[in-house]
Design brief:
- Helix content is about 45%, strand content about 10%.
- The protein is built from 10 helices and 4 strands.
- The protein is of the alpha+beta class.
- It is globular.
- A 4-stranded mixed beta sheet has the order 2-1-3-4.
Length: about 260
């Protein structure tokens, strides 16, 4: 066997023994056991870490999400990555920008139909009270009634009578009844003319609208159209019954 030459070691220089691989193999399982024990203590026992410190479980979870052999990226690398990648516009943002660029179109809605015009019924005409006014200007009253009839289409009813006439008083009572008064107000302009006195003007009016002459039986009821044409004259045809049924039928017949 050849002899080995031993070199002298200079003074002050220490020799180090190479670490044994067996010792390293023993230390690694002990370190792993310590890590497991620390994790169980953090999960089961009270934590001695200060407030705000990251828990070992969170660190373990973050480490598990990384694949083997990779290291977590530094903050500077993350910032560079986020700065280099431009975010893609979301569909809602794209639609909003497109709608902002597109010219606005006025929405046309069909106009609401105009309500049909309804012609309000004319107010009832005034119905004079009972009796005859001998001092009234009968011609003026007739002219006013004909003018109103041309405006509203009603007929003019001339009532020639006297305050001392019993039949005239009976007719006045029927005219005052609600049903008969409603017919008069809706369809007629009533003019009452006194012929019981010595008024020659009123007597001339009677002969004008009832020219047949002879002996007149009061009351004389004459229906005149808005144009002034006589439609019926009870001096020629005879008076209806002076009741609500008789006078009502007469008025309804000649109302139009």
């Amino acid at each position: 066997m050849p002899s080995r030459l031993l070199r002298p070691v200079p003074a002050g220089r220490r020799t180090t023994r190479p670490r044994s691989t067996a010792a390293l193999a023993v230390r690694l399982p002990l370190a792993a056991a310590a890590v497991v024990a620390a994790g169980l203590t953090a999960a089961c026992g009270p934590s001695s870490q200060p407030v705000g410190a990251a828990s070992p479980s969170a660190a373990g979870q973050s480490a598990q999400t990384l694949p083997a052999g990779t290291q977590p990226a530094s903050p500077s690398a993350s910032a560079e990555a986020s700065a280099s990648v431009s975010p893609s516009p979301s569909p809602s943002a794209s639609s909003a920008s497109a709608s902002a660029k597109a010219p606005s179109r006025a929405q046309t809605t069909p106009a609401a139909p105009k309500p049909a015009r309804t012609t309000a019924a004319p107010a009832p005409a005034r119905v004079p009270g009972p009796g005859y006014d001998g001092s009234a200007d009968a011609q003026k009253l007739i002219d006013a009634a004909l003018s109103a009839a041309k405006a509203d289409g009603r007929m003019v009813l001339l009532d020639f009578g006297a305050n001392w006439c019993g039949n005239c008083k009976a007719a006045d009572k029927v005219f005052a009844q609600p049903q008969t008064s409603a017919i008069l107000g809706a369809s007629y302009h009533l003019v009452k003319i006194d012929i019981g006195g010595d008024s020659s003007a009123n007597s001339a009016l009677l002969r004008k609208y009832s020219p047949s002459g002879g002996s007149y039986k009061m009351p004389i009821l004459i229906v005149v159209s808005p144009s002034g044409t006589v439609r019926t004259d009870t001096h020629a045809t005879g008076n209806p019954a002076l009741t609500s049924e008789g006078l009502g039928s007469f008025l309804r017949r000649w109302a139009s």
